[in-house]
């Protein structure tokens, strides 16, 4: 994950001196990407108006959402000085797939007011679980597929249920029978384990550190508890078809705080079964 580095070396723009500054970003800079950065110990990194958390060895993480703009920039400041510079990166734009699904029950397409109220309350709990800016640094790890199987839905696609366009899909769907074990794609801490949310059914959220998290939904069974630490490869849940689902599958999603990122960009092609 840290193999590809984009390095900026140059003179500071404010208080320019002979000092050389280095700034590194790993990852393909495109919509939906997770970018890992490296900074010096005495630097402060500001992105989108916010100071980023740095690990003890200077690493940080940033997520680009589905519709990220054509360019993003980072401001790098030297602690205790007025020195700073800004580095911009072009963001590769993507084209997304449309999926038409017919025959879905109308109650799934248009929930009633009581169901909407319930779903909003549950969504707030999920967003709160993703909002942890923890000191964990598992975001630097190499991620793996949480299970193997046919991919039936991809990140960024937009689903049209019974002719009605819905919000884009933000995960990757993997079709497997109910009860198939799901493993942690990377180490982390369980932030939420809910047995039956209205839309997402059995829902599990694992924090990988610095705001990067994995969400697993439509689960038939959750094998871990909130606060529990899990290691990469640990069995954490079982595939199901709970919530608003059209069949047994795992929907794996990832977030950097409120930015929805593409899990497939971290794991690459599905391994041969």
UniProtKB/TrEMBL annotation:
Residues 1-22 form the signal peptide. It holds the Pfam family Peptidase_M23. InterPro entries: Cell_wall_metabolism_enzyme, Dup_hybrid_motif, M23ase_b-sheet_dom. The keyword rRNA-binding does not apply. The keyword Signal applies. Gene3D superfamilies: Glucose Permease (Domain IIA). SUPFAM superfamilies: Duplicated hybrid motif. Residues 168-263 form the M23ase beta-sheet core domain. It comes from the Bacteria. Keywords: Signal. CDD domains: M23_peptidase. This is M23 family metallopeptidase. It comes from Sessilibacter corallicola. The lineage of its organism: Bacteria, Pseudomonadati, Pseudomonadota, Gammaproteobacteria, Cellvibrionales.
């Amino acid at each position: 994950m840290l193999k590809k580095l984009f390095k900026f070396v140059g003179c500071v723009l404010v208080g320019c001196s002979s000092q050389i500054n280095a700034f590194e970003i790993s990852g393909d800079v495109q919509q939906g990407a997770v970018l890992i950065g490296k900074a010096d110990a005495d630097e402060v990194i500001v992105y989108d108006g916010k100071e980023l958390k740095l690990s003890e060895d200077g690493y940080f993480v940033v997520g680009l959402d589905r519709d990220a703009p054509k360019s993003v920039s980072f401001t790098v400041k030297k602690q205790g000085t007025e020195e700073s510079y800004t580095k911009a990166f072009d963001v590769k734009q993507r084209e997304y797939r449309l999926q038409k699904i017919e025959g879905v029950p109308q109650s799934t397409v248009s929930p009633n007011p009581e169901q909407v109220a319930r779903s909003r309350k549950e969504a707030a709990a999920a967003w709160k679980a993703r909002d942890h800016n923890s000191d964990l640094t598992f975001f630097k790890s190499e991620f793996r597929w949480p299970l193997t199987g046919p991919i039936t839905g991809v990140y960024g696609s937009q689903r049209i249920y019974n002719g009605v366009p819905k919000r884009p899909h933000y995960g990757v769907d993997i079709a497997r029978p109910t009860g198939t074990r799901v493993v942690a794609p990377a180490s982390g801490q369980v932030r939420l384990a809910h047995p039956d949310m209205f839309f997402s059914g059995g829902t599990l959220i694992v924090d990988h550190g610095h705001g990067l998290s994995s969400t697993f939904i439509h689960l038939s069974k959750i094998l871990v508890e909130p606060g529990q630490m899990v290691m990469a490869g640990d069995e954490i849940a079982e595939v199901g078809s709970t919530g608003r689902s059209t069949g047994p599958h795992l929907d794996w999603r990832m977030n950097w705080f409120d930015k929805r990122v593409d899990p497939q960009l971290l794991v690459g092609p599905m391994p041969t079964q």
